[in-house]
Design brief:
It contains six helices and 17 strands. With 346 residues, it is of the alpha/beta class. It folds into two domains: 247 residues, QueA-like (3-Layer(aba) Sandwich), CATH 3.40.1780.10; 79 residues, Thrombin, subunit H. Strands 2-1-17-16-14-3-12-13-15 form a nine-stranded mixed sheet. The chain has a six-stranded antiparallel beta barrel with strand order 5-6-7-10-9-8. A two-stranded parallel ribbon has the order 4-11. A hairpin with a 4-residue loop joins strand 8 and strand 9.
């Protein structure tokens, strides 16, 4: 496909609403796994725990160890008692956060907000890009403890069920707090499954990318190339870079778990495909025509029609093959999105 003719509608597929998973499975690794061969287009169906059979000694599995914060705060406007919802997006400095506020029109600079009967107070400072609000919070005690007590997990809008256990929207290896959404491909792994994978001689490299809502923002422009990705903070340690680079040198495969891990290693790599340790912000946008520098294979969930995530997956396996796999997943009644089933593109 000509990059200059990439249309949003080229990445559309029909998805029956009942296939959107509302609850996580009791056993993380019991989800289904569709395996797609990116060269032949061949498709096969498995359980996620079978992923062990597709990994070989000498491979490197790249995991995003970000941790989701309970970033959804429900409160009221001081003086009016009107309900307000604040979603924490990015910490700017100390107690100042960039946020998404609903209803935004009623929260002009100077507006004061109250949460948890006054345990947490806030003032809207200014309106920034995309209508987001900068808010300064005031509280007594430790921020993380206050947030844990008052905040809710920021589940995507297509999940309408209430989450019974906060930990089910975290990977078992989540470590560094900072995400407004989970790197959901990692939700399928259990500690036991990871141990099995390592016993097979597969190396594990942990990278960090704090997932912002920009990942899920709809593409509004019909010409995909006009879409602007929001930046997200990432970090690659020396240990992770050495593990990934060593794998490439030895002829092993680098297999990213999730689009966030993929975007991290591709952002941290130079033209020759060597990953450099460091941290920064990335707004990398991967779509068909992109040449992967590091990634050889990808474990991912099933994504929204016309989303940047479907475009990334299409860059790896080809748009037509990916859409054919998605149609097959719909026919086979796979579960879609955050709490849904998985796909391995080899």
């Amino acid at each position: 496909m000509d990059k200059m003719e990439l249309k949003k509608s080229d990445f559309y597929f029909e998805l029956p609403p009942e296939l959107i998973a509302q609850d996580p499975l009791e056993d993380r690794s019991a989800s289904r796994l569709l395996v797609l061969d990116s060269d032949s287009g061949e498709i096969s169906h498995h359980r996620f725990r079978d992923i062990v059979d597709y990994l070989a000694g000498g491979d490197c599995l790249v995991l995003n160890d970000t941790k989701v914060i309970p970033a959804r705060l429900l409160g009221e406007r001081e003086g009016t008692g009107a309900h307000v919802e604040v979603l924490l997006l990015k910490r700017r400095e100390n107690d100042v956060w960039e946020t998404l506020v609903k209803p935004g029109k009623k929260c002009r600079p100077g507006t004061r907000l109250i949460f948890g009967d006054g345990a947490l107070c806030a003032e809207v400072l200014e309106t920034v890009e995309e209508g987001n609000r900068l808010i300064r919070f005031a509280y007594e005690g430790i921020w993380e403890e206050v947030l844990d007590r008052l905040g809710e997990m920021p589940l995507p809008p297509y999940i309408t069920h209430r989450l019974q256990d906060k930990n089910r929207y975290q990977t078992v290896y989540a470590r560094y707090e900072g995400s407004a959404a989970a790197p959901t491909a990692g939700l399928h792994f259990t500690e036991q499954l990871l141990a099995q994978i390592q016993e097979k001689g597969v190396k594990i490299a942990y990278v960090t990318l704090h997932v912002g809502l920009g990942t899920f923002r709809p593409v509004k422009e019909e010409n995909v190339l006009d879409h602007h990705m929001h930046s997200e903070y990432y970090e690659v340690t020396e240990e992770a870079a050495a593990c990934i680079n060593g794998t490439k040198e030895r002829g092993g495969r680098v297999i990213c778990v999730g689009t966030t891990s993929c975007r991290t290693v591709e952002s941290a790599a130079d033209e020759k495909g060597r990953v450099h340790p460091g941290c920064g912000n990335t707004d990398i946008f991967i779509y068909p025509g992109y040449r992967f520098r590091v990634l050889d294979a990808l474990i991912t969930n099933f994504h929204l029609p016309e989303s940047t995530l479907v475009m990334l997956v299409s860059a790896l396996a080809g748009r037509e093959r990916v859409l054919a796999a998605y149609r097959e997943a719909v026919r086979e009644r796979y579960r879609f999105f955050s709490f849904g089933d998985a796909m391995f593109i080899k």
